[in-house]
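quick q for whoever's on today - can somebody do inverse folding on this one?? i tried earlier but teh output was garbage lol. tokens:
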């Protein structure tokens, strides 16, 4: 106190204001995406079956387990139904909790049963509002990361505004609500914020411990909610490895992060009943290899430039060889093949040999797994995001190269800390981590469009940090000999505020138009099909068809499936390829035999697949099947020389002619403009 009056510490005020702005923006984002979802489908006014059909493909499959848990007589019975599930894959009992990442559905369904909200809130709303609520967590985490990097909450505000105004490229939550990434990415953003804080210098031991706990919890939740967790964390581990090699991060903290990644993943592995895909992940092999290689090569960070470069190259080679050896060894022992389709796809994608593998081609032909389209950059440039990002990225990369070279040239650590002040170009550990993070995830996004959401959201953080960073402006002004501390602050704040005003002016009318646009869900053919299945087939009936449609059949009708869209299992991939012979050139006897081997009683044929025009020739599902079967494709165009004409016409076309060779095995029981359902005859 001074003269009896309490003095408020000045740093409390900006933290309070910044915190209030962060929470407000997070909640606004949640309301915004929830409103868009409601306006697009008129969700509150459509029938339950239509709501369920709106969860397309794998979204419907994941949501069906939430519905199953809620409809079970008790929580124990619900869990038993998931651990011993015989409705998802006919003639097999599988453990859903081991195979799929559905703990979030289990947790939510138990929460819904316990909380006294059943009178006020339908289960479906509890589910979708939770996911829209996670968007608030996501935006707050991005805001905090940017704030931590730049030291001002204005940059957090800019990051959040960019995330919202570039919504088309930063999230797809409003139309793919139950997708695993919509659960996982908010926790990933929290983890990045925690790592950014952890890498600050001069942390108290208590702060460090608490931050490590936050990193562990967010890493664990991220890993638990998404099956591609290990690949994202491998990229993160690579970022840490690169920075550690160039002395840009404190080695002790990097070691902790490696250990947290492994322990988080192993804990998930235990919860998923020792899921073999996790044990055989490259991440565990890589992190273990780095820790082993470090103990072998003790004096990595001593010596002159050439000496250190030589050691570094050896170190990288050692880590690579160890990773491959350990991974091969684990896969051999556990006889693992669950993730081989991903490596086949990667080999084909990057041109290491053409492939006729059906699974790899299925991915290669999907637009989502292709290269990032160029129009993405023009959309991101409309809000200035891409221009600012490239500008900041260029400056930071130059700084990183200078610092890395300086570190390798070997100024000892003690001198280094003293000299830090003298150097014009410096790079803090937290900024260095975010730089490498954005570069590596940028490469991932450019090569695979589906992964762009990991990059574009971090792009908002990185660009806003650069624009509001004292270091960046200090560097620019020093280069043109105009540096004063006051000038730096004036430029930093004025540029940020001008950018915010520009974004508001440019995007506000568009957002208002979007919020006032009203549409309605309309898919009468699928609705009719689901009603027919519910009222005309026994509860135990087994259905075959495309994986996308069958996920909806399971959700809407509870019938047993032969296959489904969760593709991370070798047996299921084999099974799907077999069942898809309904769209190939095969004899009715062959198709009947295949379908009966999986216990099929009804098969659903879709005109949209049989006569598909969405993909070009060579990428239509029927073409992929023809190539895999060694048959010539339909239509005009080239065929590989060793492909031969099939002896039989295409099954899905020929069955509609009601020829005796078909009607002896299949009886049409339902048809509309889109679907044809056939019942299989049971032969003695």
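ok took a stab at it. sequence:
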């Amino acid at each position: 106190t001074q003269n009896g009056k309490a003095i408020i510490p000045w740093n409390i005020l900006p933290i309070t204001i910044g915190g209030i702005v962060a929470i407000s923006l997070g909640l606004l984002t949640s309301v915004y995406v929830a409103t868009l979802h409601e306006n697009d489908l008129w969700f509150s006014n459509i029938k339950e079956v239509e709501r369920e059909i709106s969860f397309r493909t794998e979204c419907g499959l994941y949501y069906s387990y939430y519905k199953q848990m809620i409809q079970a007589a008790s929580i124990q019975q619900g869990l038993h139904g998931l651990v011993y599930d015989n409705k998802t894959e006919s003639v097999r009992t599988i453990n859903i909790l081991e195979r799929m990442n559905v703990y979030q559905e289990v947790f939510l369904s138990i929460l819904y049963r316990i909380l006294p909200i059943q009178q006020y809130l339908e289960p479906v709303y509890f589910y979708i509002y939770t996911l829209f609520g996670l968007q608030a967590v996501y935006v707050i985490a991005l805001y905090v990361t940017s704030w931590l990097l730049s030291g001002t909450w204005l940059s957090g505000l800019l990051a959040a505004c960019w995330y919202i105004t570039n919504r088309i490229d930063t999230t797809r939550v409003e139309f793919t609500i139950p997708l695993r990434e919509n659960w996982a990415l908010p926790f990933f953003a929290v983890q990045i914020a925690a790592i950014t804080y952890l890498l600050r210098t001069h942390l108290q031991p208590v702060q460090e411990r608490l931050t490590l706990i936050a990193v562990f919890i967010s890493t664990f939740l991220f890993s638990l909610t998404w099956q591609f967790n290990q690949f994202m964390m491998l990229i993160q581990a690579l970022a840490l490895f690169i920075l550690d090699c160039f002395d840009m991060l404190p080695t002790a903290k990097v070691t902790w992060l490696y250990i947290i990644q492994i322990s988080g993943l192993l804990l998930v592995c235990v919860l998923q009943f020792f899921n073999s895909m996790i044990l055989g992940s490259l991440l565990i092999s890589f992190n273990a290899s780095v820790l082993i290689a470090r103990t072998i090569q003790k004096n990595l960070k001593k010596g002159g430039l050439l000496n250190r470069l030589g050691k570094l190259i050896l170190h990288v080679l050692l880590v690579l060889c160890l990773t491959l050896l350990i991974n091969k060894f684990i896969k051999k022992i556990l006889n693992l093949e669950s993730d081989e389709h991903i490596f086949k796809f990667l080999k084909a994608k990057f041109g290491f040999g053409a492939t006729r593998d059906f699974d790899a081609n299925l991915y290669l032909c999907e637009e989502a797994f292709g290269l990032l389209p160029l129009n993405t950059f023009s959309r991101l440039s409309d809000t200035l995001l891409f221009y600012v990002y490239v500008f900041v990225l260029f400056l930071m990369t130059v700084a990183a190269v200078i610092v890395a070279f300086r570190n390798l040239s070997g100024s000892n650590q003690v001198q280094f800390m003293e000299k830090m002040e003298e150097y014009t170009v410096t790079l803090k550990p937290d900024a260095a981590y975010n730089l490498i993070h954005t570069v590596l995830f940028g490469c991932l996004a450019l090569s695979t469009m589906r992964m762009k959401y990991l990059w574009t959201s971090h792009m908002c953080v990185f660009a806003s940090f650069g624009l509001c960073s004292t270091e960046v402006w200090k560097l620019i002004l020093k280069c043109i000999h105009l540096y004063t501390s006051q000038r730096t602050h004036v430029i930093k704040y004025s540029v940020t505020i001008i950018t915010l005003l520009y974004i508001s002016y440019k995007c506000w009318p568009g957002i208002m138009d979007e919020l006032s646009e009203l549409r309605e869900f309309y898919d009468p053919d699928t609705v009719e099909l689901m009603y027919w299945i519910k009222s005309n087939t026994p509860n135990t009936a087994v259905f075959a068809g495309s994986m996308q449609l069958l996920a909806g059949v399971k959700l809407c009708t509870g019938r047993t499936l032969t296959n489904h869209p969760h593709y991370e299992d070798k047996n299921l991939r084999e099974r799907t390829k077999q069942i898809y012979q309904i769209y190939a050139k095969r004899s009715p006897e062959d198709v009947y035999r295949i379908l009966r081997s999986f216990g099929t009683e009804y098969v659903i044929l879709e005109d949209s697949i049989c006569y598909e025009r969405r993909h070009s020739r060579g990428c239509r599902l029927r073409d992929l099947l023809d190539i895999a079967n060694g048959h010539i494709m339909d239509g005009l165009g080239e065929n590989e020389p060793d492909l031969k004409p099939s002896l039989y016409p295409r099954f899905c076309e020929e069955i509609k002619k009601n020829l005796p060779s078909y009607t002896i095995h299949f009886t049409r029981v339902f048809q509309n403009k889109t679907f044809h359902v056939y019942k299989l005859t049971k032969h003695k």
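fwiw The chain has three domains: 55-120, 131-516, 524-680. also The beta strands are 542-544, 560-561, 602-606, 666-671, 675-680. so keep that in mind when u check it
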